[in-house]
Amino acid sequence: MSRSLGPSLPAEVLARLSQAELAAHLGKAIPLITLDAEGRPHPMLLSSLEVRAADPRTIRIVIGTGSRSARNLAERRVATLLLVEPEQTVYVKARARTGPLLLEDLPDCGLFVLGVEDVLEDAPAEWESSLRISGGLRYAPTPSLDAPWARAILKALTQGRG
Question: Domain residue spans in the chain?
Answer without folding.
Answer: 2-158
